[in-house]
Amino acid sequence: MNIHTYEKLWLGAAMVLIVFFIASVTYGAIGAGVAMVDDSEDTLDPDNLGEDDRFADPRVEQVGEDEYEVYVVARTFFFQPNPIEVPADSTVTFYVTSGDVIHSFSVVGTNANAMVIPGEVSTMTVEVGDPGEYGIVCNEYCGPGHHDMEGLLVVVPEDEFELEGDE
């Protein structure tokens, strides 16, 4: 069997592309440090979020120097708390759950984007830099008022930041 030279070149190029695609998918899944969503968190009763210490009072909590945790509840058609205020140049971990239907929690302009399922806790960590305002939107259709479901993440200068209750 005789294979023409151009066919050999095309077969070789196709094989190189296949190997490249497999290598890039493997690197993206393992090497780039991308964490896949897991279900290691305990589930919650979405009808009784008020009984869970984390979500009974949605809030911002300082857990270390320049480290904050934000507990957020998504409901039809708003986020609690809103707005969320954090200091500039800090690391913020969001813990988000839903009390009713499937929502999403996306901080515009960052890589924070997660599906929010009733009874589950979505966790994501973001490093916030300069002061500014970032919109929070729901990207999962959650009902007729979905288009109005939005929130606000306000990053304020460190010297202007005060946790609620601090005087």
Show the helix and strand layout.
Blueprint: H1 5-31, E1 59-64, E2 67-75, E3 78-80, E4 84-87, E5 90-98, E6 103-107, E7 113-116, E8 122-128, E9 132-137, E10 150-156
Parallel strand pairs: 2-5, 4-10
Antiparallel strand pairs: 1-2, 2-3, 5-8, 6-7, 6-9, 9-10
- As for the number of domains, it is 2
Average pLDDT figure? 86
Oligomer: single chain
CATH C-level class of the largest domain is Mainly Beta
H/E element sequence: HEEEEEEEEEE
Query: How many DSSP-defined strands?
Result: 10
- The CATH superfamily of the largest domain bears the name Cupredoxins -  blue copper proteins
Tell me the span between the first and last alpha carbons: 86 Å
Task: Name the CATH architecture of the largest domain.
Answer: Sandwich
- Global morphology: elongated
Structural class: alpha+beta
- Rg, Å, rounded: 22 Å
- Approximately how much beta-strand content do the residues carry? 35-45%
Characterize the biggest β-sheet: 5 strands, mixed
Number of separate helices: 1
CATH topology tier name of the largest domain: Immunoglobulin-like
- Percent helix: 10-25%
The residue ranges in which pLDDT falls below 50 over 5 or more consecutive positions are none
Commentary on this structure:
There is one protein chain. This protein has 2 domains: 1-34; 46-160, Immunoglobulin-like, CATH 2.60.40.420. The strands form 2 sheets. Strands 1, 2, 3, 5 and 8 form a 5-stranded mixed beta sheet that branches. The chain has a 5-stranded mixed beta sheet with strand order 4-10-9-6-7, with no helix packed on it. The mean pLDDT is 86. The longest helix is centred in the N-terminal third of the chain and has 27 residues, at 5-31. It contains 1 helix and 10 strands, in the order αββββββββββ. It has one helix at residues 5-31, and strands at residues 59-64, 67-75, 78-80, 84-87, 90-98, 103-107, 113-116, 122-128, 132-137, 150-156. It is an alpha+beta fold and 167 residues long. Strand 1 (59-64) and strand 2 (67-75) form a beta hairpin. It is elongated, with a radius of gyration of 22 Å.
